[in-house]
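Page 37, continued from 36.
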């Protein structure tokens, strides 16, 4: 928290004082990564180690969850005798590229409005 306050207030104070006796200050491009984050070199190295450890931990958790999901998928596929999906999207039974649709599919599409209207009439 002190780091955040120092970075916010310190930057504003530097801007406020302007060029008063600041001839020996380094430019933004000459700062080391630790100085750019407002830390000492040791603090910055510790911070980088923590980031790497956290990333490794997240990756391990993700891999474990992924393996658990795969196990569940195979379990349910075996239990309900489901085929393994090779592609992710749901597709119509015929290819849209060829432009031909099976007659049964076309009949269902044309009969849907008629069936819906008949159903409404019968429910009233």
């Amino acid at each position: 928290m002190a780091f955040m306050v120092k970075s916010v207030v310190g930057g504003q104070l530097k801007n406020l004082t302007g060029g008063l006796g600041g001839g020996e200050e380094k430019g933004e491009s000459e700062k080391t990564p630790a100085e750019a984050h407002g830390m000492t070199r040791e603090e910055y190295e510790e911070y980088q180690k923590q980031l790497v450890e956290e990333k490794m931990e997240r990756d391990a958790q993700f891999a474990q969850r992924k393996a658990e999901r795969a196990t569940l998928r195979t379990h349910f596929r075996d239990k309900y005798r489901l085929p393994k999906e090779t592609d992710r999207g749901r597709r119509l039974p015929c290819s849209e590229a060829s432009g031909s649709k099976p007659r049964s599919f076309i009949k269902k599409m044309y009969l849907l409005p008629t069936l819906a209207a008949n159903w409404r009439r019968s429910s009233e």
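The chain is about 65% helix and 0% strand. Flag for discussion at group meeting. The chain has a mean pLDDT of 75.
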